[in-house]
């Protein structure tokens, strides 16, 4: 039986498309409506089976909806939530998939109606690929979705958001919005920034001499530029503090190299190796 | 028909073991001798099918050999080449698998006998895993092997080394030893150093919030510590210059973040993405 009635996906890219595929392949909703401004992209999402119907008018899209999932770029999410709240029915659950949370939550909570409908979320899953064509029904399978409710979030919206994301295969981790943004600055924004900086300093003429270490360390550098500029600027202080930590450790490595200190280099390497080996992927599994 | 007669593998870890597996699975040699100091490791290599016989005495190992491949840590390779040249027959080809080349070539070339047998090589293939148990018969398939002959390298040793590595499935790229070390400082040593620094600054308590970007950007940080301290210290100047380039680009990113410059961040990202998309893996294939 459909559990979520009509679900509106606002922004049908990789994340929105994957949510649609997961809902439809699991029979979790009676109807999946895709909302966006580009009819060609909505057509593609429909062709791929990610949505049942397309809408380019937001009032039409949210009319009679039970759940709205906002999958637009982080700089647009709060504004989209405000508009959806104003147009949607009282029972609507609004959740989102933004990679940063504090600013979005702060903005949504200024509006009592939006606040009464909203529980912020961040699925810790993605790809360097873009668009609905890169969508996968199993994108959230076994992955963490961070929920960042506050004292102002209605309990029933927390429960419904938790059920929604869990039904897509995800595991829920509840965390305060600011703590989320600090942690993600280190676990996601920093690795993306570093991958891009690294890809930018290795001259193209030497790429035939690059192999697996290069390939993996720079993979996410081929993600969408606008997307990442947007995420970085939604969390600049925390990211700059992570970059500062990174630079200090880089300086230690450089000093050990300058000194020819083999034992120091081994110790620095061992310290990082030890942390890396505690990483389990997918969550709960053993080290890859 | 066996093409290489007796091949001695000096140091039967991931690389040496994979050479043995490739030789034996392709029937390229009449005998593969594994040389090392640890009988337990040699036993394991024999059990895995990477070698036919084990030897813990170098004179016995190289007696009657046609090819010796030195797969020991970079800081030991030159010394091993000198010893092998002194003990082996005149016809012997000595090649190696070291990740740095200039210092090794310089040292080997000081000895006329070793020089007359030696053609330096670096297979651009590997893994963060260690030991013969991580060996794969296809490790070199479609991969680049850099050969770094000089004016002093006998032409027949260049030809034989080239045939040897190509028979394992590799493609040959010939490059001057110093150029090799400069290029590899950027394409391999820098990504390894950065992966380790990154893994070292992300607090363990936040790892449940890490996903694919973290996993890939830090994968090689779990490689052997001694191995990489060794490689870094065999090429410190070039690596420090790569780290300097990296730091300057990191500073540009940080300044753009401080200024809240979305266009600047997008442009910096796009520049790196453009280089990354020219990377083909495996060599000649399309972007992964």
Question: What is this entry, summarized?
Answer:
Two copies of one chain form a homodimer. With 288 residues, chain A is of the alpha/beta class.
How would you characterize this protein structure?
Two copies of one chain form a homodimer. The C terminus of chain A is likely disordered. The first copy, chain A, is built from twelve helices and eight strands. Chain A is globular, with a radius of gyration of 21 Å. The first copy, chain A, has 288 residues and is an alpha/beta fold. Chain A is 51% helix and 11% strand. Chains A and B meet through helix 8, helix 9, helix 10, helix 11 and helix 12 of A and helix 8, helix 9, helix 10, helix 11 and helix 12 of B.
Helix and strand run of chain A = EHEHEHEHEHHEEHEHHHHH
Question: Which assembly state applies to the chains in this document?
Answer: homodimer
Number of helices of chain A: 12
Give, in spatial order, the strands making up the sheet with the most strands of chain A.
3-2-1-4-5
Rg of chain A, alpha carbons: 21 Å
Any low-confidence stretches of chain A, pLDDT <50, length ≥5?
A: 284-288
Count of strand segments of chain A:
8
Mean pLDDT of chain A: 94
What percentage of the residues of chain A does DSSP assign to strands (E)?
A: 5-15%
Describe the main β-sheet of chain A briefly: 5 strands, parallel
User: Which chains make the largest contact?
Assistant: A-B, 91 and 91 residues
List the defining traits of the structure above.
homodimer, 288 residues, alpha/beta, 3-stranded mixed β-sheet, 12 helices, globular
